[in-house]
Every structure is written in C-alpha cells, then in structure tokens.
Design goal:
By secondary structure, the chain is α+β, with helices and mostly antiparallel strands. The chain is 47% helix and 27% strand. The chain has a three-stranded antiparallel sheet with strand order 1-3-2, covered by helices on one side.
Amino acid sequence: MIAIADAFSGQYANETAFMQALVDQLRIEMARRGWTGAAVHEVRWREAGDGRPAATVVIAPGHRPLELERLREKFRDVREAAARRAEQGELL
C-alpha cells in the first residue's frame, strides 16, 4: 500500500489542482514500485482547525489506472457521508 497526506494551501490554485497533485504524487510512487494500476483503499478529508482542508489517500495495487476523476469521486462520497452524519446528529 501507498499512503500520502497533504494540506490544501496557497501553493494550489484550487481544489482540483490540489487533488491532481495528490494523484501525481501517487503515480510517481506507483511507477517507482512497478505498479500498473491501483485500487483506492481509503480516503479521508478533514477540515483543519486553521481553515485549511487536509487529505489522506491510501491505495493498493490494482488493475485500473489511477485517475483524477476516480479520486475526486471517492472524496465526494466521503464528504457527502460526513455531511449526512452531521445532519443526522443535528436532528437527534
């Protein structure tokens, strides 16, 4: 498995550039290990106390290429699930 983490900061123009940088970092490590594809094992997104979001991505060897849209979809799912949990907590 390969895991990376980074915080969204001024070096990234926007969230898409941030996620693309994560994909690029993962692809470099995949190539170093001789992987031709990856399965996204886990993603985490948290809003840091200083207002900067942070992301963690864990991948395992797989058969599909690692693409920005796949990672973006995983992050979208995680964020939507967190929003639902927060909303349900407010309703209780």
